[in-house]
Inverse folding.
């Protein structure tokens, strides 16, 4: 190995050893990460990685790690002219909506069970069935669905967005389980859609109670995309960012994360003094992002890697995001 790759392998091992990566593992990927990191600088590109990505992407090539909205907002404020978004496709769309003047690429056109559960046509039918009700869409939706909605929301500000409307009945799409959790927090009637996250719907209350018995000293943290039954038996329920903040600012060392496994990898890497026990589920969509596809996006992007949104849809979708920003995140 030449000096640059040797130094890259050392850097990788320092970052990845807490998630079980060996020096040999890092030696193997170092030539690829070194080339990606070199090319992104040459092209004035920024690489964003969602927290559900694998450790080699998060700590090997990403400039910023976070959730979909925060990453898109950071990208819109960053001077980079090209955005490589290691995520599912709708997140790349959100980045394009907020940065229409920039080139936005995704390594793979990965789907999402939640975003794919509803279409723009479905939203129009809901609006016909329930006229004059405002439509709030969770950010985990396509640009076309955002364009049909009055306002967007994240998992951390959904209740605030709901309460910003004077209406007593509100259409909340597409996450049924999150909607059920929100319904317990508001007196407004939420009209829900039957969408779920393939990761979080698989957790059940009995399983969590068993984990509680097995690890009585651990704090249990769940995403609000989990069922109300799961949320009712954990110590804290919130967004990905809120869970990370809880870990960072709590003296407890033992945690069970009821969410996607990438968060476990993040905490093992960024908080090596914390102990993650218990369970997590893999997102097959997020885990379809491969390092070699990131390099392709930088060197010779395929048509399916380039995020494009028709102008009329982009404009309307941006309005729903801007209204959310006006309400506050």
């Amino acid at each position: 190995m030449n000096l640059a790759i040797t130094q890259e392998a050392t850097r990788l091992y320092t970052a990845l050893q807490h998630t079980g990566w060996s020096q040999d593992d890092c030696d193997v990927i170092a030539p690829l990460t070194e080339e990606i990191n070199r090319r992104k600088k040459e092209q004035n590109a920024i690489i964003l990685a969602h927290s559900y990505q694998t450790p080699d992407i998060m700590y090997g090539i990403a400039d910023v790690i976070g959730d979909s909205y925060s990453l898109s907002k950071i990208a819109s404020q960053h001077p980079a002219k090209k955005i490589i978004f290691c995520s599912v496709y709708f997140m790349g769309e959100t980045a394009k909506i907020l940065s229409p003047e920039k080139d936005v690429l995704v390594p793979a056109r990965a789907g999402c069970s939640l975003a794919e559960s509803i279409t723009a046509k479905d939203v129009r039918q809901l609006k016909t069935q329930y006229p004059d009700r405002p439509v709030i869409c969770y950010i985990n939706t396509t640009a076309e669905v955002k364009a049909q909605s009055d306002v967007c929301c994240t998992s951390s500000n959904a209740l605030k967005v709901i309460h910003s409307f004077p209406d007593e009945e509100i259409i909340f799409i597409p996450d049924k389980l999150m909607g059920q959790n929100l319904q317990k927090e508001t007196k407004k009637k939420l009209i829900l859609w039957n969408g779920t996250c393939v990761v979080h719907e698989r957790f059940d209350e009995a399983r969590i109670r068993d984990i509680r018995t097995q690890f009585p000293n651990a704090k249990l943290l769940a995403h609000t995309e989990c069922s109300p039954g799961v949320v009712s038996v954990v110590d804290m329920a919130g967004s990905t960012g809120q869970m990370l903040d809880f870990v960072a600012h709590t003296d407890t060392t033992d945690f069970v994360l009821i969410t996607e496994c990438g968060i476990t990898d993040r905490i093992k890497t960024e908080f090596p003094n914390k102990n993650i026990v218990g369970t997590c589920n893999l997102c097959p969509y997020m885990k379809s992002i491969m390092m070699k596809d990131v390099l392709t996006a930088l060197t010779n992007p395929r048509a399916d890697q380039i995020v494009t949104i028709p102008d009329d849809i982009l404009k309307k979708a941006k309005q729903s995001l801007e209204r959310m920003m006006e309400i506050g995140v």
